[in-house]
Queue: 2 jobs
Job 1
Amino acid sequence: MELVNLEQFFKENKQLVEEYLTANISELHAPTVIVDAMKYSLDAGGKRIRPLLLLATLQSFGKDEAIGLPVAAAVEMIHTYSLIHDDLPCMDDDDYRRGKLTNHKVFGEAMAVLAGDALLTFSFQVITRLIKEYKIDPLTGMKLVEELAMAAGPEGMVGGQVADMEGEGKSLSLNDLIYIHEHKTGKLLEFSLVAGATLANASEEEIKKLREVAYHIGLAFQIKDDILDIEGEQEKIGKRVGSDTANDKVTYPSLLTLEGAKDKLQEHISAAKALLSSLELKNDLLHQVCDLIGNRDH
Amino acid sequence: MELVNLEQFFKENKQLVEEYLTANISELHAPTVIVDAMKYSLDAGGKRIRPLLLLATLQSFGKDEAIGLPVAAAVEMIHTYSLIHDDLPCMDDDDYRRGKLTNHKVFGEAMAVLAGDALLTFSFQVITRLIKEYKIDPLTGMKLVEELAMAAGPEGMVGGQVADMEGEGKSLSLNDLIYIHEHKTGKLLEFSLVAGATLANASEEEIKKLREVAYHIGLAFQIKDDILDIEGEQEKIGKRVGSDTANDKVTYPSLLTLEGAKDKLQEHISAAKALLSSLELKNDLLHQVCDLIGNRDH
């Protein structure tokens, strides 16, 4: 198994993804203000985790990452639309995200709703470039359309957001908490791994295992977030330490104790790595992603 | 050319479309409240113009309408999501639509935003049933995904909505007005005709003509709306006569005079029918649709 420099891989491919996003948005024949509003939030930074996971999966199966760009861009557009709508006054009512004014603070609420709608819709247009520009088999294209719609819609991300809203101020069980995270953030992560593997013509069996990997990675990511809220350094995590406790939020540590949450984190990381080891991957990119999630300090 | 009873065709197929919509929404594995919110607006009635145009086009090319159901349902879901978002307080701030409370008045603003997002996303999931249940060629499926995303997104319906908002309170030219209607309502109508023809394996040339038919039908529909606002009977059109003038809205009659608008309406209807006559259609359904648009009293 080839050893790849994860940092280098992320840096190079992040740039590729961002250039591809910019190129696609710039080509739009649409009123300037909606293009500006879409661009504003797409350009607002972020780790580009979902597209990078997709491209890393492609490379892990020995495929050229470039064929993944349309789908990588699509999943990032969907993630971005969800942030724009989540920040609206009627949802979380946030004025800032990553240190920048939120979309509706700059463009107004109506335009923010429409910019989200536009990004969500445009993501499905961008996916069709797989067929025209990358000569991918249309049946694979339709599978990815279905997979993305399921991951993003009422049975996926939107369903998780609804469950999260419904659960506010209520006492949640561990299963409730898992349902919320598995859907609100987990389903798009799962999509990223599955889409990469699908484009690499992985077998049904391999894709099934990657779904499980995504499940463990997604929950590990969330548990680590909860732990950092207690133990992290404010400057590094970019928000006040202890905000979950202050907001009476149900978290893994509040349900399992801090030690219990740390054990659970290790369980999920180990399970993900064991599954990855059972696949014949060309390099250790996804193993490194698992370690990164467990050890990150922000 | 076979003569078909349009009223009968609409009645039977409206029921088919509504049953198909209900069946698809009912199967969702999602939190009850989001399914209820999606259903509420889908069940709120309406003429189902877009799905019926799609099925009428299929039958005009001699194909079984049933294969059009997934796409017909998808376009109706997109239309419905656009109404939910348009009614939001930050957009048109409407409390009622077709005599029923708007989505956000029943489910709250946050849930209405999410119900719209869910319907928009789910529409692309439903389209993929073409492949699995109706054995349609996946390349045709991908073409329809692209066509629907273009018609609904920033280059289509969303772009028209933005232009409409930007134009409020400004003096618009006839070209501005055409841009708004062509995009805000025209593009989904165009999609309906093009999708029906695409599923019927129509030629590029035929599809090009149907795009022009859709252009004329869409503008004729809008001009007739503007005329009814001046000459219609309040009980039939369901809103106060003269509301456009009272709201200082730029309309066809305000730009062309009432007589000029009536002439323009007839021009568009004639142009649409001439184009239809140049196609070898199996029946007169689409001709009847043109007459209906020109002669309707509500």
Note: The longest strand of chain B covers residues 96-97.
Job 2
Amino acid sequence: MQISARNSFKGVVKKVEPGAVNTEVTLEIAPGIEVVSIITKSSAETLGITEGKEVYAVVKSTDVMVAID
Amino acid sequence: MQISARNSFKGVVKKVEPGAVNTEVTLEIAPGIEVVSIITKSSAETLGITEGKEVYAVVKSTDVMVAID
Amino acid sequence: MQISARNSFKGVVKKVEPGAVNTEVTLEIAPGIEVVSIITKSSAETLGITEGKEVYAVVKSTDVMVAID
Amino acid sequence: MQISARNSFKGVVKKVEPGAVNTEVTLEIAPGIEVVSIITKSSAETLGITEGKEVYAVVKSTDVMVAID
Amino acid sequence: MQISARNSFKGVVKKVEPGAVNTEVTLEIAPGIEVVSIITKSSAETLGITEGKEVYAVVKSTDVMVAID
Amino acid sequence: MQISARNSFKGVVKKVEPGAVNTEVTLEIAPGIEVVSIITKSSAETLGITEGKEVYAVVKSTDVMVAID
């Protein structure tokens, strides 16, 4: 499946922290660059998200803000 | 200002494409890793977004999806 | 690719309206049920979105609100 | 109230799963077409979301992605 | 219609700036407090959004970030 | 840090309700105008969000919908 979301970063799962409804997933997409994602617990289980797994972080371009110092 | 959005990536603006209401901004946050952002044209002007400028890409963790091959 | 977004609806493209930066895409996912999507013009071109094409509408569950009469 | 969100689908609540802060609600908007929504537990209670209730799933068009096989 | 979005602010439209696909709407929800919204041009027309009109700004709680100085 | 999100409202924290992964924060941005935000528990702790603290509610303009009666 190819998706309209413009940002897709290959990475490795570093940490998985399940809550009641949501799970927090931390990925490393480049040395020292980590991305934190909140997905439903159900999705995390369906996708088999576990530490060390190769995954993609996917983000719509309208969800990326830009900031300056 | 420090924000609750968990993801903040330092980068350099590579491309700025203004539309009527929105502007598309492409940043490089690591060698070969580009992030595309859509912000309002007004924000792009206020922040002075131009090619070569050092900026941050900021993303809420609930806006990051996870995908597998 | 399999994604964490919980909602994925197969449909057919009914209308494509390109703007300067964004394109509005209307899909029919069931008889009489249409979904409107705004994606970047660039994504619409990359995915080859044209009338009649079979596509999926994909939505994160946190982006679905519930309303009552 | 009439809202700017372009997508509004009438449906019936099939499942309600409350967590600590959020509640996961599953609706059926057409035979075999289910939509999953995460709303705050407080909203679910205020709206009286229970199995069998007639509700609407509401989604902004910028939150709908398009994917192809 | 009553919606799960937790934030709903009554206000008056101060400015309407239509683009090709999207329209930027500025509302005043309290003296000196303005909210900027981007909705589709089509929604703005359907809702009859014009300067001086009484409207509501509606925001999901997951779309509100918190920042500190 | 200055961010592209167009909406930034100064306020005071009225209530903090932590869940397993997310925390619900209620701010007052003007007399009688409250904003509810869901952020990760981790962000709430990092920012030191407690009742009475002066903070900002930050919202992207694409995340603001408009509704009429």
Note: Helices of chain F lie at 41-46.
